[in-house]
Amino acid sequence: MIIEWHTHVYPPEEAAADALAWDGKSGPTWAGKCPMTVENVLDAHHRAGVAISVVSNAAHYMRGKSEQDELKAIQRWSDYAAEIQQKHKGILYGFATILPCGGPAQIKEAERAIRQLGLKGILIQSNHKAHYPDDDEARPFWELVQDLDVPVFIHPPHVGFGEERVKEYRLASSVGRPADLCLAISRLIVRGILEDFPRVTLVSSHGGGGICEVIGRMNYAYELQEEAYFLGSYSPMKIKHEPGYYLKKMYFDTVTYHAPAARMVIDTVGADHVLYGSDAPPLTSLKPRAIKLIEDLGLPTADKEKVFWRNAAKLLKLSDSELSKLTLKIEQSGRQQRRNQA
To answer: Are 152 and 202 contacting, i.e. CB atoms less than 8 angstroms apart?
Structure first.
């Protein structure tokens, strides 16, 4: 069984032919070819033999909207995600998209999306217009999601940290986004968000954007308080443990496109905290590669099951009954495919 944690859909108006692809105000138009549609998600889902897909909206277009239009766009996605989830019940599960620093209206929308619309989690951007989710303005958001008890999926925006140097060669996607994600996670740790809100379930996209590689440096920066004085201040102190302690409380998807990187994530936080993902759509051809990457890691069967579906099922709070029905449906589909091939 496979549960896909990382696939994206835009609402139809944001995927329209004349919509600008990068951030809603720049880049080429979609020209009728936006890949982030429900139809493309379902096609890739069935072709790959996926059982459940978590559908989220990275909302890169949000950067191009005025503050007045941001809330409308967020609410529109919540409604559309709920519509998708209901129409494809048991197959697609929708996540809301929320701006944590957006003030009371965004907090209210997060509550509506989960409690009224029944969405299964919340996507946040690693930064939105230079506001990072560790900012003090975001604390009411973390208070709420701790009580909502749903996973928070952190994902980079179109471009963030270092954007002035990543405008060529698609470096905004390949380097800029992971770098921004790594920065945001590191700040969430050292600024005490995971200390102050210990019941938050935080899931990082893109294997954490390299955080598992630099966590050792973060640990010694914390540990060597006096010896490392020349590196700068480590105050005010907001955490009670080394950063790696908090990192191991998080979950990470496997969207790394590089087997050693995926292996590093598993080795750092353990198979219990890793979720299969492909980020396809938008780049649909990556889905079979993402599945093969996990298959080729040579994980023990129990760990492979955790990565492919058990961990995601736990975070989605799927019941034993739901999983049993899903398993039966997959078995029936497999038998039908074998009959068709006979």
So the answer is: yes
User: In this structure, how many other beta carbons lie within 10 angstroms of the beta carbon of residue 127?
Assistant: 23
Of the listed ranges 158-172, 247-261, 264-278, 297-311, the one predicted with least confidence: 158-172
**Mean pLDDT across the stretch 125-144?**
96
Domain residue limits at 43: 3-341
Q: Give the end-to-end CA distance of the chain in Å, rounded to a whole number.
A: 23
Find the helix or strand (DSSP H, E) in which 70 lies. Answer: helix 67-87
Question: Would you call 141 helix, strand, or coil by DSSP?
Answer: helix
Q: Does the structure show a pLDDT above 80 at 212? A: yes
What is the DSSP pairing of strand 3-8 with strand 151-155?
A: unpaired
**CATH number of 166's domain:** 3.20.20.140
> Distance (Å, rounded) from C-alpha 175 to C-alpha 168?
11
| Domains identified in the chain, total number | 1
H or E element, residue 154 = strand 151-155
Q: How far is CA 240 from CA 48, 193, 246, in A?
A: 44, 12, 10
Band (pLDDT 50/70/90 cuts) for residue 338 is low
Integer Cα distance of 101 and 111 in angstroms: 15
Amino acid at 236: P
**Residue 269 Cα to chain centre, angstroms:** 17
Report the pLDDT value the prediction gives residue 335, as an integer from 0 to 100.
65
Tokens read off for 168:
């060529």
Task: Give me the pLDDT at residue 322, please.
Answer: 83
Contact call for residues 309 and 330 (beta carbons, < 8 A)? no
